[in-house]
């Protein structure tokens, strides 16, 4: 069932991107490339998807996306500040029109009282006439590691479709 949902959302996203001649990129941590895989599973996705970034470690986030080491130390990888920098960095590095970033605690370990397992932050960056706009969102998903990651991918696609890409 989840595979069907992912495919449907990816097809819908691809159609919108193609119609508006937009390019999307991803900067993923906890989803480990699942979002990029889902987007690129659709035949013809090379018309709107060129590259993405799996930046699982803080070092990769800093080196590949330009996330500030100070921000990583002060706020941690699973934070609004980090996903905002990840999305903006991916947008710039990929020369895309839209970028989505994901960083979270999928579990089963790694959670805390402040950031429990299931906490996921999302960043959505896009080009405007005034430069780059970044929107961030936070969710706390239930379930095991796979379920948290799946929900994060679905949320990313749905948010791109409903809030980020203008009709």
Provide the CATH top-level class.
Alpha Beta
**Beta-strand percent range:** 15-25%
The CATH homology group name: CinA-like
Rg measurement, Å: 15 Å
Which blocks of ≥5 consecutive residues have pLDDT under 50?
Answer: none
Mean pLDDT: 96
Q: What's the CATH architecture? A: Alpha-Beta Complex
Keywords: Hydrolase
Domain CinA C-terminal: 8-162
Pfam family, one: CinA
GO molecular function: nicotinamide-nucleotide amidase activity
Describe what you observe in this structure.
With 167 residues, this protein is α/β, with parallel strands linked by helices. The chain has a single domain, classed as CinA-like (Maf protein, Alpha-Beta Complex). Helices cover 46% and strands 20% of the residues. It has six helices and five strands; from the N terminus they run αβαβαααβββα. The protein has a five-stranded mixed beta sheet with strand order 2-1-3-4-5, with helices on both faces. α1 runs parallel beside α6. The two termini are 27 Å apart.
Offer a few descriptive terms.
alpha/beta, 167 residues, 20% strand, 46% helix, Maf protein, 6 helices
């Amino acid at each position: 069932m989840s595979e069907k949902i992912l495919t449907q959302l990816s097809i819908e996203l691809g159609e919108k991107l193609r119609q508006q001649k937009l390019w999307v990129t991803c900067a993923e941590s906890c989803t480990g490339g699942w979002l990029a895989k889902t987007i690129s599973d659709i035949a013809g996705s090379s018309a709107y998807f060129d590259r993405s970034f799996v930046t699982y470690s803080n070092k990769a986030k800093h080196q590949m996306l330009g996330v500030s080491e100070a921000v990583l130390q002060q706020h941690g990888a699973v934070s609004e500040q980090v996903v905002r920098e990840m999305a903006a960095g991916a947008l710039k590095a990929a020369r895309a029109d839209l970028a989505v970033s994901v960083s979270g605690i999928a579990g089963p370990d790694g959670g805390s009282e402040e950031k429990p397992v299931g906490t996921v932050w999302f960043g959505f960056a896009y080009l405007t006439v005034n430069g780059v706009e970044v929107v961030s969102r936070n969710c706390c998903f239930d379930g095991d590691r796979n379920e948290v990651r799946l929900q994060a991918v679905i949320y990313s696609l749905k948010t791109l479709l409903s809030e980020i890409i203008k009709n």
